[in-house]
Amino acid sequence: MKIQQNYDNDVNLKIKRRRWMNVGLIYLILLLFSVLFMGTFLFGAISSLKDNPGSWPPTLKTEQLSLKNWIGAYKLARQGGGSGFFGELKSGYKVSLEVTYKYPKGIEIQPPQIIIPKRFKGTGRTALELDREFTADFVETKPAKEIDRIPEKDGTQVSYKVIVINTSQKDFSELPLDLVVPYKVKFIKATLFPNRIERLGMVQSWNNLVSGVIPYVFHNHFRVFNENYSRSTGKRLFTTWIFNSFFICIIKVITTLIFASMAGYALARLRFYGKNTLFIFILFSMMIPGQVTFISNYLVLRDGIFGLTKLFGGGSLLNTFTGLIISGLVGASAVFIMKQFFEGLPREMEEAARIDGASTYQIFAKIMLPLAKPALGALTILTFQGVWNEFFWPLVVLTSPMDKFTLTIGLLSFKDTYASGTFDWGPILAGAIISALPVIILFIVFQRYFIEGISFSGIKG
């Protein structure tokens, strides 16, 4: 008996070990998948902060995430008269930048040449503002003053103070700066690390000394909003695209929740002729990709819903938000989810309500619909995500002007604005990260309903 008991204990121990090994293997596989899918998003998010996200070799390190540079950006913005987090160069203020170089032996020690360049804002549409005023025309610079010198074995480290004074009566949102040193002189450090070191290290360039911490870190994100505007209306295009996407998403979420809940309840609880046939037709429509039917849908919108809108004085629904919304009021998958959820609810509640004299509408509105919050929450996330990320159909329906674009179509235009010839990937990555934030926030808020809705939608009572 004792031998048998020891044998059973050994078997149970092996089973437990094997079970834990399987669980650990599953978690390891899930962890690898999460790193695989989230790694690209993390790399894109960090690269969107870089001044040059196309640098090679690619790395996750960026000066925009350095605490030392945050302190430097805050200090310089305060010197310019700004708040520190959002800076500017006000009238009568001066900015003092400390920079250190290493002069090798045999190189004459001379202070860097100070240049306030006339630089356009990025490569977007604001680069066409040829009549703008430049900070260089209104500020004065003092010769670089040596403040420290440390001899070393192979050279000398020299620190300088560079002072720029706004002697005009104007305030400026930016203060670009270039420092030029002799060849082989090595840049060591500065109050704020330069955005670029060019010409074999001879030129150190700062885009804006008084940007402040927030614009310094999210430089490309600010460019997305500031450099893209409508030349006909003067509105900021990126803000308009976000508003358009939110407007269409909210309308479609509301219509989907209303129609899908009513249709799902009718298919799950009501009895009428052809119900099963209708449900099979809905399932069949889920199997057809949108690329197959987009031509017929395009013709329907072009003719104004078979010409019916023309009877009321309307015309084509192409290139309108109305056409884009009407063509997707509710999806078959949304009806399927609600039908499956309502079938999982006990019928006894309905029977008790009918005994009390409640009508079908009252049962649906006051009993079934409040119980469907998990499914409605899941449907809200799925619908919002689908409409927000929808690209093909809005690209077909909305053509011009750019003020009518949704965010996904607007991001496509960045290819011509930033990528063609200049390979300026920063604003493109920043726009993509901004477009992903609403979906992430929505999922975090409704994740409990999403999990409950998906788990209950496949249960039948």
Task: Explain what you see.
- By secondary structure, the chain is an alpha+beta fold.
- It folds into 3 domains: 1-47; 63-217, no CATH class; 237-457, Orthogonal Bundle (MetI-like fold).
- The protein is built from 16 helices and 9 strands.
- The strands form 2 sheets. Strands 1, 3, 4, 5 and 7 form a 5-stranded antiparallel beta sheet that branches. A 4-stranded antiparallel beta sheet has the order 2-6-9-8, with no helix packed on it.
- It is extended.
Summarize the structure.
With 461 residues, the chain is of the alpha+beta class. Helices cover 52% and strands 11% of the residues.
The overall average pLDDT, rounded, is 86
Distance between the termini: 48 Å
The total tally of domains equals 3
CATH hierarchy: architecture of the largest domain = Orthogonal Bundle
CATH class of the largest domain: Mainly Alpha
Strand percent estimate: 5-15%
As for the CATH topology of the largest domain, it is MetI-like fold
Q: Structural class of the secondary elements?
A: alpha+beta
Gyration radius, to the nearest Å?
31 Å
Number of strands: 9
The amount of helix comes to: 40-55%
Helix tally equals: 16
Uncertain segments are 457-461
Largest sheet: 5 strands, antiparallel
**CATH superfamily assignment of the largest domain?**
MetI-like
**SSE pattern, N- to C-terminal:** HHEEEEEEEEEHHHHHHHHHHHHHH
Basic shape: extended
Break the fold down into its secondary structure elements and pairings:
Elements: H1 2-47, H2 67-79, E1 94-104, E2 113-115, E3 139-141, E4 145-152, E5 155-166, E6 177-180, E7 186-190, E8 196-198, E9 203-206, H3 213-217, H4 219-226, H5 237-269, H6 275-286, H7 290-302, H8 308-311, H9 321-326, H10 332-343, H11 348-355, H12 360-371, H13 373-388, H14 392-397, H15 407-419, H16 425-457
Antiparallel strand pairs: 1-5, 1-7, 2-6, 3-5, 4-5, 6-9, 8-9
